[in-house]
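I have a small job for you when you get a moment. Would you make up a two-line entry for one protein for me to read? No commentary is needed, just the two lines. Write everything out right here, beneath this request.
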Amino acid sequence: MIDFVVQSGMSMLVLLAVYYAFFEKEKMHHFNRFYLLAALAVSLVLPLITIETVREISLPLNPAPATILLQAQPQQQPTTDYLSLVGYALYGLVTFILTLRFILNLKKFKRLAMSSPSIRHPEATIVLLKEQVPPYTFLNTIFVNQQDYYDPDNDAVLMAHELTHVRQKHSLDILFIEALRTILWFNPMLLLYKKAIQLNHEFLADQRVLSSYKDIPSYQSLLLSKAQGLAAHPLASTLNFSITKKRFLMMTKTTSKARGLAKQMCVLPVLFGLVFFICVDNQAQAKPLTASTRGTSDDQARNRYYAGVQVKIHDYIDNVTIDQPYESMTLEQQRKYLWYVPAPLVEKSPTTAEYQDFRNPKKYAIWIDGVAVKNSALDQYAANSFVFFSGSSVMKNARSAKFPQPFQYSFYTRDYFDKTLKFSHLKYGSSVYTATIYNQNTSKTTKAKATAIALQEGDRYADDTQAEFPGGMVEFIKFFSSNYKIPAGYKGNGKIVASFVITEDGSLKDIKILRETDEKTSAEAIRVLEMSPKWKPGTRGGKPIALPYTIPIVLALDK
């Protein structure tokens, strides 16, 4: 609702500014009438329209098959937003009062018409009033002072003016704007639109009268003489509305067709701009990379990361051998084999409470700058001495006599972090990248040679089958989402990257957090993964094998 109010108000402001700048002083009143009404309609409709434009983002040709995206939703207790309720109640009350006033004003016309003498005219009903008021029109009824009506000097001019309001149905414009003001009473732009519309109505009526009544000075004198009457009805078109210099100047003004058309064309770029800023929603859509897709941000990051690296790849499935500098590879090869580029690490220091807890030697195994230390070594540092820390839980079957603790954490000082980790996402850590992809049926000699090559990203075989959660990945997402509880006090959005190994019997082991938002959300992810039912294990050559999995978990709080 707030977006609608802001966007519609902005559109009304822009279009009215265009009207004042280009059209109000020009003698093209029929166009101006259409423009003002269309500006209101467009301003109300544009916020309701969404034009989605697709911005394609690139994904690797061979994404890690074990990586899924999981959205975890928090379990929140329903709360009552009393401030919003008060706001809605206030809006409803004011709208009700204004609607009632609008209805009473309509009834006032009916009562006045029924209680006063009237005369039938071929195009209207003329109601004769005793009150000394200027003539005004509502729908097909003209209200005029009885004495003025029978004045032979005024009758023809007055009727010509008011009948123009009847013929051109100006009252419908006023009803439209008043209905909007009843609903959107908090929008001050509507009052400005009403004044502009009513003034343009008078321009139209003046133009029609002067097309047959050529004595402009006499007509202006008549308008001034009638301007002294009582205020007319707020829903009516009245003779003396805004008797100003603007109106008198307009009577003698001319606008050429070329000038008018040139100014009208100015609306188009403004309208296109409003459509773009209000309606266009730039959506990102993922698609697999192809050799023809070039110049993406992923390409730029990869080019920087692997710059100057000698790439040695043996792909026995596709029968491809690469042994050349990264820059000499084709774009398709770069995207196919070197799709992985790490994200930058975000600096973080432990809180005072966390740091105190890390001193517990029964709970945590500690590393400082890559060296295993006793927990008491933390006493030599303040919590903010470390600019980055990370850790994970250790399953029982993965603990050792040297490190029996259920958690392990690494801490990094500024110098060590800046030297080894801060820019690790910018440059590959070796001058040579080696990887091998081979088929199960490859000869033993070839496999022996391939095994001797350091495999950076992990082997894959043509006849491998991936591990599968009972019921498929959709069921795993349901399992995780239903069991994961957002820790109390957590705010905002975050991303956790968890890894684990699915063993030959389908159970999970070596559960670790590779990237975390905070300790509590990571611990909750580990807890849920430890609850996981057994998976159907992956196989190689028909035999179960242990396979690694990596899962990004997006924490998206419901608003």
Q: What stands out?
A: The CA atoms of residues 490 and 521 lie 8 Å apart. The domain at 67-79+464-559 is CATH 3.30.2420 (TolA/TonB C-terminal domain). The longest strand covers residues 51-59. The radius of gyration is 39 Å.
